[in-house]
Amino acid sequence: MKTSFEALSDSQWEFIKEYLPMQRKRKYDLREIVNAILMMLRSGVQWRNLDSQYPPWQSVYYYFRTWRKDGTLERLNAALNRQERLRQGKAPTPSLVCIDTQSIKVAPFINQDKGIDGNKWINGRKRHLLVDTLGLVWAVVVHAADVHDGTKAHLLVEHLLGYLPRMKKILVDQAYRKVFHQWVQTNVVGLEVEFSSKPPSTQGFVPVKWRWVNERSFAWLNFFRRHSKDYEKTTNSSEAWILWANCQILLNRFE
């Protein structure tokens, strides 16, 4: 895992540009736009403090927001996931996925979509990730920390029904037993939900088969200063930064 920012290499850019709107001439080079986004992801710099070597922050933010809203970021993320799975000798899309959450504190000025996680005593938001057995992020939902895990997990699955035709089983913990399990049984034919948790008598972190990859994916986010807290006013932006982090991790494997 690289711990410092490096500009996109030629091979990385050749892959990325296939998923960006390159059809017309633009005032600013899209390669520099992507470099600026990835630098902010790694360093955690504020939009208005973006270094002058990059395009103006307003332009960078315009593309950050546009690519999130029009699906460009999701298509790039899915393409990188498929590329990495093929590189490791697996099918392009997974049949087994895992869902889990991480509660995270928010910056002081954040007022929207936050609450207190009563189990972990964290006032902030939850990052809800759906990952495959390699820990690659296929879907993310961010919501207030006081919202129960099982009531939001269906949003991850709904979003991927057209993307992951091989998805047959989802591993979750006991928090998903009621609402989420019932939703899957009612709405998705042929999808199995398996409950996988550590034995109740154990203390501390215990690796649970396959579901430990969720914890590793959350740990990977620690390499990006932007994710040390949730600094985003909207959960949509929070979700976008997590996808960018997954993209950056996979781009680093192109070397």
**CATH architecture field of the domain at 91-231:** 2-Layer Sandwich
Shape: globular
Number of helices: 8
Model regions low in confidence, pLDDT < 50 over at least 5 residues: none
- The whole-angstrom Rg is 18 Å
Identify the quaternary structure here.
Answer: single chain
Helix-strand category: alpha/beta
CATH topology of the domain at 91-231: Nucleotidyltransferase, domain 5
Instruction: Kindly report the average pLDDT value.
Output: 90
What is the count of β-strands?
A: 6
Q: N-to-C SSE series?
A: HHHHEEEEHEHEHH
First-residue to last-residue Cα separation:
12 Å
Q: What would CATH call the class of the domain at 91-231?
A: Alpha Beta
Largest sheet: 6 strands, mixed
Helix content: 25-40%
Share of residues in strands: 15-25%
Features:
alpha/beta; six-stranded mixed sheet; Nucleotidyltransferase, domain 5; single chain; 16% strand; 255 residues
Detailed description of the structure:
There is one protein chain. The protein has a domain at 91-231: Nucleotidyltransferase, domain 5 (2-Layer Sandwich). Helices cover 36% and strands 16% of the residues. The protein contains eight helices and six strands. The chain has helices at residues 10-16, 30-43, 57-69, 72-87, 153-160, 179-187, 212-220, 235-251; strands at 96-105, 115-117, 122-132, 137-144, 169-172, 192-195. Strands 1, 2, 3, 4, 5 and 6 form a six-stranded mixed β-sheet that branches. Helix 6 (179-187) links the parallel strand 5 (169-172) and strand 6. Helix 2 packs across helix 3 (57-69) and helix 2 (30-43) packs across helix 8. The model has no long low-confidence stretch (mean pLDDT 90).
